[in-house]
Amino acid sequence: MVRLPLIADHHKSFFQGMDVVNILHLTPYYTPAYAFGGVVRSVEGMTQALAERGHIVTVLTTDALDQTHRYTGLMQEVINGVRVVRVPNLSPWLRGKLNLSTPNGMDAIARDLLAEADIVHCHEFRTVENLLVTPLAAKMGIPLILSPHGTLSLTTGRSRMKAAWDRLLSSAVALRFDHVIGLTTAEVEAVQTLWSRFGRRRIPATFSVVPNGVNPAAYRDLPGRGTFRAQYGLGDGPVCLFMARLHPRKGAHLLAEAFRQADIPGARLVIAGPDEGGRALIEPFVDERVILTGYLGGESRLAAFAAADVFALPAVGEGLPMVVLEALAAGLPAIVSPECYLPEVALSGAGLEVSPDVAALAGALRMVLLEQERREAMQAAARQLVNERFTWSQIAAQLETAYDSTQEKRQTTT
Asked: What is the CATH topology of the domain spanning 9-213+392-413?
């Protein structure tokens, strides 16, 4: 059995007397595996915010970096106050092609980490990691919390695989969770509907809503607008940015067609993201005004936000997309679909909520890109909305409430 060092005694004594929780987060991928989408940024943000608030935070994950590569750094390291423990995937091909982990030796490592844990917080539902670790935690009497991150719906991809997984594996795993955290009320309702098919547990699970967050400081001092614009030949006109995986449900093809229909002089549309079957739908609308950059990470990602004037995500089947919050933090008005579950964007004046169809999107693009005064008002409202509702420090406080209530319920019912 692989033995891991416990948290140092002096670290424990430093927090003695404080309401500190030892939290084990279980996730298929962790920073810097951003190619797997918003879940990675979400888990990174919440774990680091919890560590900043004095909790002892460990992440158990795999060596997945992207769809074809492994992480080549340390398998045990501390990143911004969070201890990260990685195990190798036996088959990176399965990770990339079928979104399926093959974590080698995770159960043995998990036993050592569980000996320290007060709470286990699992990320995504249908994972091999959950199959391996949740039965161990349940046997040890450790409360289990789940964040599905908008992945429960069968319409978000791999529907046949998800349905088969539910028939064979999901019931036992679902009934182990003490508490489920949805990103939105709609997600909680979807979880409750799905859970009702899995039977009953002796102590019924509870549910709460905790949205995603963002660190506004990371988007305060962005690179200059000129560098990215010069690199991709964007000129001086207004720029609309789409940034997400190029999957058909993300709607980039609808946005590209709407952009052509809007026909705004001097405007450019930047579509950034790795192809997951959606690029072929976009290509009929690509001309000199539509630029496909591929995946953007690090400084290039920030430079894209800095160069843009508006952000658009006409997606369906979302949870609560991290990239929209990042765009708002960067001061970009947002055009979102109802299934981004961010009605606050329109209500606060930080952007528009429109149906994901070409005519509605074309009208929204004309309104925001042609009316500079309206756009500037939206920019200020975007930053204000994030600061008031969606900072990671606020989200971490809400997570603490969920952890506390789950522990208290366990203590009063056992």
From this structure: Rossmann fold (3.40.50)
Beta pairing, strands 351-353 & 334-336: parallel
Which pLDDT score is estimated for 350?
Answer: 98
Q: Which of 376, 292, 369, 330 is nearest to 215 (CA)?
A: 330
> Could you tell me the end-to-end alpha-carbon distance of the chain, in angstroms, rounded to an integer?
31
Query: For position 409, what pLDDT does the model report?
Result: 85
Which residue ranges of the chain lie beneath pLDDT 50?
A: 1-18
Listed residue (33, 28, 40, 30) closest to 321, CA to CA: 40
C-alpha angle 346-350-353 in degrees, rounded to nearest 5? 30
Q: Which residues pair with 22 in a beta bridge?
A: 56
Q: Which helix (H) or strand (E) holds 106?
A: helix 106-114
Domain 216-389 listed as CATH 3.40.228.10: no
DSSP class of residue 202 equals S
* DSSP class of 166: I
User: Considering the entire predicted model, what is its pTM?
Assistant: 0.89
- Tell me the residue type at 176: R
In 3-state terms the chain splits into helix, strand, coil percentages (rounded to 5) of 45, 15, 35
For position 159, what pLDDT does the model report? 80
Mean of the per-residue pLDDT values of the chain: 92
Give the Cα-Cα-Cα angle 151, 31, 119 (nearest 5 degrees): 65
Going across the sheet that includes 334-336, the strands are 290-294, 268-272, 239-243, 310-313, 334-336, 351-353
pLDDT at position 202 is: 75
The residue count of the chain comes to 414
> Pick from 7, 12, 13, 42: which is nearest to 27 by CA?
42
Q: What ranges make up the beta strands (E) of 96-176?
A: 119-123, 144-147
Residues 6+ apart with CB under 8 A from 292: 271, 272, 279, 282, 286
For residue 259, the SS3 value is helix
Strand pairing of 82-87 and 56-62?
A: parallel
